[in-house]
Amino acid sequence: MIHETAIEPCSVRGVRLYELRHVVDRVRGNLAVCDFQQELPFAPKRCFMTYAIPDQQTRGEHAHRECWQFLVCVSGECHVCVDDGGNREEFCLNRPTMGVLVPPMVWATQHLHSADSVLMVLASHAYAPEDYIRDYQEFSAMVAGQRFFA
Asked: 82 and 89 in contact (C-beta within 8 Å)?
């Protein structure tokens, strides 16, 4: 059985929740697919994974000035909280067919990792420390001074 990609907006500016195209095959196993050029607004330049996160630890807690990210929990589950300075939403990523698109200037935090959690992140840019905003007050001041259009 083939399930097509479904993309849903959320209340946080630019964030989208994806249910990736996937094939359920009881004989050969399942397959999840993301066609970058058709479904993501960027071509990934970097991929990284977080795993073996100690109990109660949090990852992320930053925004990017220019970098887009697409997060998929390929094993286990974790929660992703996104915040644009005015709206906040939280998603439980608990299957490899679900992903969250996080645009620049959105604060993202990952927490409540299961012991077997493996979070894969596709990023639009190579790692650049100057792209990170790691202080929430600084982030809030930056977005308060900008006007964003949907």
From this structure: yes
